[in-house]
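Sequence decides. Our protein:
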Amino acid sequence: MAIANYGTVASAGSISDILKDFYIGPLQEQLNNEVMCLEMFEKAKVSWAGRQAIVPIHVSRNTGVSYASEAAAGGVNLPTAGTQGVARLSVEASYLYGRMSVTGQAVAAAKQGGTASFIGTLDLEMENLKSDIRDRANEACVTGGEIVGLTGHVSNAALGASVTIKIDGNMRKLATLASAGNVDLAFITATPDDLGAGGYRFVNGTLGTTASSLLRVSSAADVNATAGTVTGTVLTGDINFPLVPDGFVCAVKIFSYTAAGVYDPTKEPVGILGNLFSDSHFGVSRIQGATGAEKTLQSVGVAADKDGSSDNREALALDRMQETMDAIGIQSGLDPDLILCNKAMRAAYIGLLNGNVQLDPKSAATTVDGGVTGINFNGIPIRTSRHVPQGMFIFLNTSTFKLAILEDGKFADMDGNVLSRVSGADAFEGFYKWYYNHYCHRPNASGVLAGVIGGTQSS
């Protein structure tokens, strides 16, 4: 649908004032307080060239540092000079829009019934628009872009074989895209680089970019959101289906698709999973063998199943959570400061704490509450959101994630009018717009524990 032409709302200028006074300001403030990425990530100061911002990042240390013995006469004991390794992220803005309309009849009613009548008519539209904008932004904050989830699949597959894979990811997005046409999935697997902590390895290794590496999902019926599984057909030849090393997961990438509904992955901001597990980080390759940058830009992807003997999901274990944190610390020298999980996964964690829940003696005598709201792990708060896929816990160092904002979210009010006339219709409309993206300048400071039993997903 084309954006309507701007223009003065005929003999209804007061309506725009009503919107500004009663809705626009408070609604935008509420969105700033409720959109997850706005809460978690600091705004970055970046310079934009068109829709693109170039962000320099540090990817490796100076190698010209070493101990040496005393220099002999005429000898040299200084190390070979080195330099700091840097890379440049090319961050492109994504455009989020929210659009609403009001009929000419409602405008006429406002003239007859006063502002209170119009406010009552418009309240439903504005409140639901706020909810829709917030939900879409929060969803994209986690699974925006081409990385849709994680899998621990371990078996081989042959040409034409039908394969069912357990995926912890945005199943609604996959089903919606599959409803419009074939969705081909590629897989970003682990490399042999060993972190030295229980054998953890980097994810973001080799990506299959040929047809023989793809799994084709042909319909929405092939996506089982309840069980967390996707069934597809192997394309073009026998493949060693990405054999995930013991104890790890690999990323699931939407390789080709037909845009459907609200989903067009290339137009979305890059979500947390994309920042951590994409094979290309805003134009910088992190496939094994890329010069320098792939080490610093890699992330930890740990499976709940330690031995990797099957792709079964496993019950959450405190030691596995600790091992995930340790792997992140060893890799980056930094610790996460926030853990994200789906609301349905909260019970899996609380179930591990039997006997450790502390009651307030001052209130226990008069009040008993069987629920838990504030939960932590190692002093790190665990926050829940329905937009985090089931089956995973995301360990974030939020200081390494930034918001690159080309234009702050706001309602368009060209010529001072929030509403504009719809051409060829007895209606007026307005829209919300936000030009932004989120990027991580140190992906190795965060990671994910996936393949956990919880919510509707079983083993």
About this structure: DSSP finds ten helices and 23 strands in the chain. The mean pLDDT is 79.
